[in-house]
Specification:
Layout (H helix, E strand, L loop, with lengths): L2 E7 L3 H13 L6 E8 L5 H11 L8 E7 L4 H12 L4 E5 L3 E3 L3 H11 L3 E9 L9 E2 L6 H6 L6 H10 L10 E2 L2 E2 L3 E5 H7 L11 H11 L3 E12 L17 H16 L12
Parallel strand pairs: 1-2, 1-4, 2-3, 6-11
Antiparallel strand pairs: 4-10, 5-11, 6-10, 7-9, 8-11
Length: 279
């Protein structure tokens, strides 16, 4: 099988349906499967998938659809790992339900992985609904990055420069480029690389598992690439930034973000960054 696409649902039934429909409309000339993991949503997404794609298969849908049901919300990382374990494809695409894949993006990502032996992971150029570029490739974070992003300290001139570098605002995002890490909303990995690197680290509930996974790919000598030649629309809402400053401590999603950040910092305390090879 050429490709496994993993879509994790947590109370986003409408987006999941739209995402799968978008994949269907691509008419991919590939042997592929879509694996929907429901994270204890109780939003009738499970019933929708069974009715539309399993019990009464849509004749226009070229791929197959598999369903995994989790009884509870086990988080982004563990939820996606459920799908990865079941995946049969030579390439695995982690795809958020709030993404619309544009024509040619998936084929370009697969081709890049096939043509570049040392590249283990690629991510698309994400664009906002208005056509503007959405920042989705970053440099590895220092321990203080979440503090600058979540507090008034980030407004200081020196902090703005630090954050601009972290967010890779120093290039136009219109070229294919090796990057330190990619946003987990759209990541494709090749089977051979994944077999060496392994699953995402489930100590991270929702955040930093993408940072950690990319870092481990680099550590195992597999390059991580941002592909400007593969575009997807991301209807993105940065949940952890709904509140800022002292108010943010009352937000569960922000507390999860901070907790995962501490776990990442503890994991790599005293560990040198991997040498970033170029291809």
């Amino acid at each position: 099988m050429d490709l496994s696409i993993i879509i994790l649902n947590y109370k986003t039934k409408g987006l999941v349906k739209q995402c799968i429909k978008g994949i269907e409309l691509l008419n991919l000339d590939l042997d592929y499967e879509v694996i929907v993991v429901d994270n204890g949503s109780n939003d009738s997404c499970v019933e929708m998938i069974k009715t539309n794609y399993i019990e009464n298969k849509d004749v226009n849908f070229k791929g197959s659809v598999e369903l995994i049901e989790s009884k509870e919300n086990i988080g982004y990382t563990a939820g996606n790992n459920l799908g990865i374990r079941k995946a049969k494809g030579q390439n695995i695409l982690i795809l958020n339900p709030d993404i619309t894949v544009l024509k040619g993006a998936i084929e370009n990502m697969i081709s890049y992985l096939q043509e570049n032996e040392s590249v283990g992971m690629v991510g698309p150029k994400l664009i906002n609904p208005d056509g503007s570029v959405q920042l989705s490739a970053y440099r590895f974070p220092k321990w203080y990055i979440p503090i600058l992003r979540r507090t008034i300290l980030g407004k200081l001139p020196a902090a703005k420069k630090i954050l601009a570098k972290y967010l890779m605002k120093d290039w136009d995002h219109d070229q294919n480029k090796p990057v330190e890490w990619l946003l987990g909303s759209g990541m494709m990995v090749k089977r051979r690389a994944f077999d060496k690197v392994g699953l995402m680290d489930e100590r991270f509930f929702m955040y930093y598992s993408d940072v950690d996974w990319c870092r481990r790919f680099w550590q195992d000598s597999f390059a991580v690439y941002y592909l400007a030649t593969a575009e997807m629309v991301h209807y993105h809402q940065r949940l952890s930034a709904e509140k800022s400053g002292i108010k943010s401590i009352f937000s569960k999603i922000t507390r999860i973000h901070i907790s995962d950040a501490f776990k990442y910092s503890a994991k790599y305390l005293g560990v040198n960054l991997p040498a970033l090879t170029r291809v």
